[in-house]
């Protein structure tokens, strides 16, 4: 198993550009989540999904969109990047609430 | 809304000491609680998962306890080593995994 795979690992965007951060898992996990990590703010939940076709907002959803068309993939879209979205983004997945979460290695995003 | 507090925020100790890291959370309606380790510039590594029906879990030199009714968990590290230096994060799961800000641990040789 590859686990949770995030691409790209690094990205620089200009303000106003759009992009999609990819997250894929090969463990047949139903639950998937996106977090951002900022100095002094810890890890904050952006969006999460409990299965294909089901998504919900976390603590800081503004400026981000998600969809879950398959069990394996949970992409995070930035429609119009802003400098405030400069952060490290982590994707995580879990089989169910009886199991722990596995994290990807992260995407470091800089918006200039 | 779940709020998670970790104390202390930072800890520096000489090698060999036994350590206790504290985690408190406001909403006791959780399925489980997970402890993670994060090295600088890296991702999160799961250390221990405690189900809501359990009181503690052990893995090697690590032992985590959970008191769901009082909203507390502790991570005990025995005989600390320089390789234990990292940030330790706790995260209760009540349908969503919510994190504390972590305890930054430095173990000096």
Task: Give a written overview of the molecule.
The complex is a heterodimer of chains A (112) and B (109). By secondary structure, chain A is an all-beta fold. Chain A has strands spanning 4-7, 10-13, 19-25, 31-38, 42-51, 54-57, 64-66, 76-78, 87-94, 102-103, 107-111. In chain A, strands 2, 4, 5, 6, 9, 10 and 11 form a seven-stranded mixed β-sheet that branches. A four-stranded antiparallel β-sheet of chain A has the order 1-3-8-7, with no helix packed on it. The radius of gyration of chain A is 13 Å and the shape is globular. The mean pLDDT of chain A is 95. Chain B has 109 residues and is mainly beta. Helix content of chain B is 0%, strand content 56%. Chain B has no helices and ten strands. Chain B has strands at residues 4-7, 10-14, 19-25, 32-38, 44-51, 56-59, 62-67, 72-77, 86-93, 103-108. In chain B, the strands form two sheets. Chain B has a five-stranded antiparallel β-sheet with strand order 1-3-8-7-6, with no helix packed on it. In chain B, strands 2-10-9-4-5 form a five-stranded mixed β-sheet, with no helix packed on it. The termini of chain B are far apart. Classes of the chains: A mainly beta (112), B mainly beta (109). The A-B interface holds A 33, 35, 40-45, 48, 58-59, 90, 92, 94, 97-106 and B 31-32, 34, 36, 42-46, 49, 51, 89, 91, 93, 95-102.
